[in-house]
Amino acid sequence: MTGGSELLGHLLHDLLVKGIIVAVALVVLAVGMTIIWRGASRDRDR
């Protein structure tokens, strides 16, 4: 049964790594959109 638990460990690690990548990408996207939104609103006020 060691092979099954080893496979489960690999799958959980893979899920964790992909989850972290998605979370970081969402944070970068949110920061980028905030910067663009503030820049666009400043241009509109001029």
From TrEMBL:
<keyword id="KW-0472">Membrane</keyword>
<keyword id="KW-1133">Transmembrane helix</keyword>
<feature type="transmembrane region" description="Helical">
    <location>
        <begin position="15"/>
        <end position="37"/>
    </location>
</feature>
<keyword id="KW-0812">Transmembrane</keyword>
<protein>
    <submittedName>
        <fullName>Uncharacterized protein</fullName>
    </submittedName>
</protein>
